[in-house]
Amino acid sequence: MKYWLMKSEPQVFGIDDLKSRPNQTEPWDGIRNYQARNFMRDSMNIGDFAFFYHSSCPKPGITGIMEVTKSAYPDKTQFDPNNKYYDPKSNVQNPRWFNVEVTFKEKLVLIPLHDIRNNIKLATLQILKRGNRLSITPITKKEWAEIMNMCR
DNA sequence: GCCAACGTTGGC
DNA sequence: GCCAACGTTGGC
């Protein structure tokens, strides 16, 4: 089982949106970055856990936990010309973008980015690295445990 | 709203 | 295949 950190802007889709979805489940679609796509397509498995991270908002940080409940399949938004994630260069025969599905597990008391940054044990976190822009990053079991320590 | 960082695009 | 221009991300 692997651990992940997945970013989303709460004004677009936040932890409460996930919690209120039918079955508390949602496709993690709209990812248009190859590295992030590869993580979903090649490395994510059912049963993996992920932190839900709120970005581009007044209080950026980790807000909850979700579980991967469906492995990667072609992201259907890429084929819909009316969708903002439409990709005219992709096609059904050879899809370019993939998504997994995630299910809400638990809300956490917000762990602010500021606190994460100040935790020396988390210095290895990819999202803290200079210039990081990846919306999906793997995290280690150790990092996961340390973050859980911060809110328990 | 600014801006640094970095990925993507497309002409050559 | 290089690289300048451009677009996006995301904290502040």
Note down, in words, how this protein is organized.
It is a single chain. With 152 residues, the chain is of the alpha+beta class. It has a single domain, classed as ph1033 like fold (Roll). It has four helices and six strands; from the N terminus they run E-H-E-H-E-E-E-H-E-H. The protein has helices at 15-20, 34-43, 113-118, 141-150, and strands at residues 3-8, 25-27, 49-54, 61-74, 98-112, 136-139. Strands 2-5-4-3-1-6 form a six-stranded mixed β-sheet. A hairpin with a 6-residue loop joins strand 3 and strand 4. It binds a DNA duplex (12 and 12 nucleotides) through residues 7, 9, 33-35, 55-57, 60, 113, 130-133, 135.
Structural shape: globular
User: Strand order across the biggest sheet?
Assistant: 2-5-4-3-1-6
What would you give as the CATH superfamily? ph1033 like domains
Q: What is the residue-mean pLDDT, rounded to a whole number? A: 94
Helices and strands: which structural class?
alpha+beta
Distance between the termini: 22 Å
CATH class: Alpha Beta
- Secondary structure: number of strands: 6
Major β-sheet profile:
6 strands, mixed
Helix content: 10-25%
What is the number of independent domains? 1
Q: Which fold name fills CATH's third level, the topology?
A: ph1033 like fold
Based on the coordinates given, report the CATH architecture. Roll
